[in-house]
Specification:
With 243 residues, the chain is an alpha/beta fold. The protein is 32% helix and 26% strand. Strand 1 and strand 2 form a beta hairpin. The structure holds adenosine-5'-triphosphate. Adenosine-5'-triphosphate (ATP) binds next to strand 2 and helix 1. Belongs to the ABC transporter superfamily.
Length: 243
């Protein structure tokens, strides 16, 4: 399969429409809708328990939506299996940085390689972003620090040729330099036409990279606006983000 160049378009590559999602009997998402275009960064913000992670889990098919629809490109992925959704080019950086602990960094990256209709990043490009990564290749992942593990978790996604990356609190517990590298990665993804959904408690960092913002509360999107508007308007930040 040949790798196609990035497509820059305003047509959403991800379209979530009116999803209701449950854990058992308990409803957590109530008609949640959002969209993101190729080369666009959407920050999904809101308090603890608002349903941000569950939204990502629904997109990934880990906690499928009971009602509503989710489309990735031309495909309806609402009820697709997670491995099929990943194979289409949906990458996920989970908040617990799920790498294989007993495997080396090199092996973790090797097995993450896959072909999609999007571009797979080269190992050298991951080294450019995370300069420490090159020196960690022989280490087993269980012996890495949180920041080092995050570099591996993100590089795995890049090498898996993503067209959309879902980041769940990527800067949690990281030193400022690694947070900068993570935000730098998001900017590079954007410049390549990859779509990003960024769930983040670090609102200041999220607003520096985001194009648009959706605020969630109680399983609903309660406010959506351009990130520039949110950055410039302290009253909007107070009202919707409590800062
Ligand atoms: N496995 C689960 N079983 C039952 N309820 C769950 C489960 N996971 C999450 N919930 C509940 O779903 C709601 C939404 O949780 P979710 O993790 O999506 O929120 P969030 O916005 O990502 O919050 P946080 O910022 O704290 O991670 C919460 O009330 C949470 O307690």
């Amino acid at each position: 399969m040949t790798t196609l160049p990035p497509v820059h378009t305003t047509e959403p590559i991800l379209r979530v429409e009116g999803i209701d999602t449950f854990y058992g009997e308990s409803q957590v998402l109530f008609g949640t809708s959002l969209h993101v275009a190729a080369g666009e960064v959407l920050a999904l913000l809101g308090p603890n328990g608002a349903g941000k992670t569950t939204t990502l889990r629904s997109i990934l098919g880990l906690t499928p939506a009971a009602r509503g629809s989710i489309r990735f490109g031309s495909q309806d992925i609402t009820h697709q299996a997670t491995h099929r959704i990943a194979a289409m080019g949906v990458g996920w950086v989970p908040d617990d940085r799920r790498v294989f602990p007993t495997l080396t960094v090199a092996r973790n990256l090797e097995i993450a390689r896959k072909r999609t209709r999007f571009r797979a990043w080269k190992l050298g490009e991951c080294f450019e972003i995370f300069s420490a990564l090159e020196y960690l290749m022989a280490r087993e992942c269980e012996n890495l620090s949180g920041g080092e593990m995050q570099m591996v978790a993100i590089s795995r996604v890049l090498m898996g040729a993503p067209g959309l990356v879902l980041f769940d609190e990527p800067s949690q517990g990281l030193a400022p330099k690694v947070v900068q590298d993570v935000m730098g990665t998001i900017r590079r993804l954007k410049s390549e036409g990859v779509a990003v959904v960024l769930v983040e408690q670090n609102v200041a960092s999220a607003l520096t990279v985001a194009d648009r913002v959706c605020v969630m509360q109680g399983g609903r999107i309660v406010h959506a606006c351009d990130a520039a508007q949110m950055r410039q308007d302290a009253s909007l930040q107070r009202r919707w983000l409590g800062i």
